[in-house]
Design brief:
mainly alpha; two-stranded antiparallel ribbon
């Protein structure tokens, strides 16, 4: 007996990811409440990896579900504590890939502020005036 059709599954996953997008937009909007630019960005990357990474809900089906939810469900209902770790491997892997991409983007200067060059020039001019 099938509880849900493929179309129901599809719309459920679309609704879940739209909700995740709203959560991430909320975090980005209010990220200035936390100190440290790189810490804030790492936190957003972790939350994104935590809520967005899917795994198979059951090993014998092709349906995907959020890894955190599958781990929580299997950890609470399973006979041993291994269920809690089922989703940890893909979550950690995706987080580490996101961090590597973030570090690469920082090194390439993708996230430079537009006024950063002007600040550097002002500091250099201020330093030259102090020497005179």
């Amino acid at each position: 007996m099938i509880m849900y059709s493929d179309e129901n599954y599809l719309w459920g996953i679309v609704a879940y990811y739209l909700g995740c997008l709203l959560v991430l937009l909320f975090l980005v909007r209010f990220k200035d409440l936390l100190p440290g630019r790189h810490f804030r960005n790492q936190l957003i990357l972790f939350v994104a990896a935590l809520i967005l990474v899917p795994i198979k809900a059951y090993p014998d089906t092709g349906y995907l579900a959020p890894a955190w939810f599958v781990s929580l469900y299997e950890g609470l209902t399973g006979p041993d504590d291994v269920g809690f770790l089922r989703g940890a491997k893909p979550i950690v892997t995706c987080y580490l890939v996101a961090v590597a991409c973030y570090v690469l983007a920082i090194l390439l200067g993708v996230f430079k502020r537009p006024d950063a060059g002007q600040e550097e020039e002002a500091m250099l001019k201020g330093g030259e005036q102090n020497k005179s």
